[in-house]
Amino acid sequence: MNETLERWQSRRAFILAVTGAAVGLGNIWRFPYMTGENGGSAFLLLYIVFVLLLGLPMMMAEIMIGRAGRRSPMQALAYLAAEASVSPRWRWVGLFGAVTVFFILSFYSVVSGWSIEYLVDAVNGSFVDRSPQQIGASFDAFLADPLRMTFNHTLFMLLTMSVVAAGVANGLEKLNNVMMPLLYLILLVLGGYAVTTAGFGEAMRWLFTPNLAAIDWSVVLNAMGHAFFTLAVGACALMAYGAYMPDDQSLPRAVFAVALLDIAVALLSGIAIFSVVFTHGMDPTEGPGLMFVTLPIAFSELPGGQVWLGAFFLLLLVATWTSSINLAEPMVAMLVAAGWRRGRAAALVGALVWGVGLLSVLSFSTLAEVHWIGEMNFFALVSTIPPDIFLPVGGLLIAIFAAWRMPVEAAASAFGGSPAGFRLWQILVRFVSIPLTAVVLLSGLL
Fold this sequence. Notes:
By secondary structure, the protein is an all-alpha fold. The chain has 19 helices and no strands. Helix content is 76%, strand content 0%. The longest helix is centred in the last third of the chain and has 33 residues, at 305-337. It is globular, with a radius of gyration of 21 Å.
């Protein structure tokens, strides 16, 4: 179980990589519709609070294990468990994380393929001069076409695994250095465009005027769960990245920067999307179809709408591409640690994920009525249980290990901050983050 020799080449590279892992469908697709369904500013306020109280300490816990172990997730947990003279079974948390990201990536690739389809349609002007009914019917027809869905799913997986196969410095780092600044540039351009729309003022009031009356227990639980989901905690992806972290980097500063960037993406996406929605007097509570049905309808009626809609789906594609690469890395890292060549490991992981993803593709057509658990078809199953249950289970086990089982000296060294800061982290993760994560898990089970 030798230490990995790979490292991020700079502190900036680590921050961009972890931000790439965190920023994806959760920020640009899920955050806007969750905000719409949960009272606007009420959900936003709670989301930010839970990012700070739940997300940040849990992110630190996961990265610390990887940094202290300097190995793949499973090997890092085994090494640190041996150092602490605790049960070697803790290493299975790493395998559980790999299984979790395997299933998440299988449906993530399918949904990300939608952004490829919509980017091409937007550039071609396919939404121009079409009625809302036609645009909605077009989306339904696309979902029901397994060949088009499979083509986009396949293309997205090839894009993802080709970067992972190139390695940390030549693949992940080079892509993040280009794509993450591009993502923020597109967001800023779209935010600038939102300011010019008639609905900008109403969107700002809806998002930022305190609305405490809208807060109830379901809104609290949804905000808590989304804060957990959006930061990619609990799947061991951050643990894998912690193994490559530069020795001289402060973990608290890096993670705080990631949290700010993650929140910024969600806020800018929300402002841009809801400005367009309110401009056309549409309902912000449209749910998951907000991105793929509501926005094309709204932009089809605006001057230059196809350009701005194309920018939206380019943004979504960039965000999901970087995020999926970071989901795939821990699985590939485990095979590399077991002696596989990186290229072969990436090919095997990609092929298996692609194959399972076909079940999600067919869940909208041939297998739509095949129910696996209760009324859930395969897509509903993998898009619900792994993110809502497996991630909190993994996050809870990772936090318990980091806060209660990992050698204190190794944890403090991996933390990389002041002794007072480390003690504050211990208190937060032990008595705030772990109980909140247990609540997230229970809410997913009930």
